[in-house]
Amino acid sequence: MTLIIEKISELMSKININIKDKIFVNQPTLPELEEFIPLLEEIWESKNLTNMGKFHQELEKKLCEFLDVKYISLFANGTLALIAALQVMRISGEVITTPYSFVATTHALKWNGISPVFCDIEPNTYNLDPSKIENLITPKTTAIVPVHIYGNPCDVNKIEEIADIYGLKVIYDSAHAFGVKLKNESILNFGDLSVLSFHATKIFNTFEGGAIICHDEKTKKRIDYLKNFGFANETTVIAPGINAKMNEMQAAIGLLQLKNVETNIQKRKKIAELYRNNLCNQNGITCIHEIDEVNHNYGYFPIFIDKDKFGISRDELYYKLRDNNIFARRYFYPLISQFQPYKGLESANSENLPIATKVTEQVISLPIYADLKNKDAERIVEIISSCRMRLVG
Ligand code: T4K
C-alpha cells in the first residue's frame, strides 16, 4: 500500500513539474495582489459595482492620456466593442475585411447581419492590401474593417484615400495595437473608430475588457448610450442598445495595470530582439517585420517557416515545440475564410487570397510576455535551430 502511495505521489510530482515547466504563447502580467485589495475594499464600501462608476471614469481619463486619444469608451470585452462599433456607425450591407485575423473580427460583422467580403493581405505587414480593396467594392459596400495585425499598422493613408473616394466608413480592429504609434501619432487616431481588446492575453489586460476610440464628443455619447441598452436618460432609449459595459472590478485592475505597461513593453522588446537576432538570419525563417517609424508594442512574435528551405514544415515545428513543453500557437491559422460559417462565400475562395493562404500555412507565434525568462527564450531558439541544423548536417 505504502509503495502504491509513494508511486502515486511520485507521479503527481512529475505531473506538477511538467505543468510548471510549460511555456505558453502568452502569460498575463498582474499587479501585486496587495495593491488590488484597497481598490476592492473601496468597491465593497461604495456598493458601486458597475454602470460607469468611479473607476470606469478614472480609467477612461487615464487611458486617453496614456494612448494620446481624445475619447475612449470602455467595454466588457473587445468582441462586444467591435459589435457595438458597427452599430454606432450604422454599418450594413457588405464590409471589406481581412481573412487573416482572430475570428472575432468577422463574427462581429455577422452578429450585425453584415456580409463579410474577404480581401487579400500584404506580404510584408500581413495587413489588408489596399491595392486589392477597390475591386471588391459594390453598391452594397458601406465600410472597411482592417486589422492592425500583431500591432503592425495598416497602410492607414491609402485606406483613408479609398474610403474617402467611395464614401465608406473605416473601423479598425486595433485589438493588437495598444500603445502603437506611427510617426509619433497614436495609430488609434486613424479611421472613424478603433477598437481595442484588453483580454488576458493582450499587452494591457483587465482580465477581459475592450474599448472604442472615437474623435468627437457626439460619437462618444452615442457609444456610451449603445453600450448601456441605448439609454440616454432614465426615460429615453435612442437605439436598440446592448449591455456591454466594463464593470468596476475590471476598471480598477486596469488602473493598476496601466502603471506597468510601459515597463512590460520594454521587457517584451528584449525578448523580441533575442528572437530576431538568433532566428531571422536562418534560412527558411522569416520574422515579423519591424516597420519604419513605428513604436511597436511587441505583443506577438510570429515567425514564418518555408518548409523547402527550413527542412521541416510549420506543423512539424509546432509539434516539436509542444514535445518540449513549448506551447507556441499558429496565430492565425486557419484563415477566417476557411471556417465553416464563412467558407461558402465567394470571397472566401483561396484563389482570391493567395498571400493570406500562404502565410496562414507558414505562421507560428512564439511565446512572448514580460516575465518570459531569457533562458527560456534561448531554449526556444535552440530547439528551432536544432530542427534546421539537422537539415544542414
Ligand atoms: N480582434 C482581434 C484581432 C483579436 O485578436 C481578438 C482577440 C479580438 C478581436 C476579440 O477581443 P476579445 O473579445 O477577446 O477581447 C486568445 C484570446 O482569447 C483572444 O482574446 C485573442 N484575440 C486571441 C488572439 O487569442 P485563444 O483561444 O488562443 O486563447 P487561449 O485561452 O488559448 O490563450 C492562449 C494562451 O494564453 C494560453 O495557452 C495560456 C495563456 N493564458 C490565457 C488566458 C485566457 C493565460 O496564461 N491566462 C489566461 O487567463 O484566444
Task: Please provide a written account of the structure.
Helix 2 runs antiparallel to helix 8 (248-279) and helix 4 (78-88) packs across helix 5. Strand 5, helix 6 (156-166) and strand 6 form a beta-alpha-beta unit. 41% of the residues lie in helices and 15% in strands. The strands form five sheets. The chain has a seven-stranded mixed β-sheet, sandwiched between helices. It is globular, with a radius of gyration of 22 Å. With 393 residues, it is of the alpha/beta class. The protein folds into two domains: 33-259, Aspartate Aminotransferase, domain 2, CATH 3.40.640.10; 260-392, Aspartate Aminotransferase, domain 1 (Alpha-Beta Complex), CATH 3.90.1150. The longest helix is centred in the C-terminal third of the chain and has 32 residues, at 248-279.
| Relative strand content | 15-25%
Structurally, how many domains make up the residues?
2
Mean pLDDT: 95
Please identify the top-level CATH class of the largest domain: Alpha Beta
Largest sheet: 7 strands, mixed
**Poorly predicted tracts of residues:** 12-17
**What molecules are bound to this protein?**
ligand T4K
How many strand units? 17
Task: Provide the CATH architecture of the largest domain.
Answer: 3-Layer(aba) Sandwich
> How are the strands of the largest sheet arranged?
2-10-9-6-5-3-4
Distance between the termini: 51 Å
Structural class: alpha/beta
Number of helices: 12
Question: What coarse outline follows from CA principal-axis ratios?
Answer: globular
* CATH H-level homologous superfamily name of the largest domain: Type I PLP-dependent aspartate aminotransferase-like (Major domain)
Order of helices and strands: HEHHEHEHEEHEEEEEHEEHEEEHHEHEH
Rounded radius of gyration (Å): 22 Å
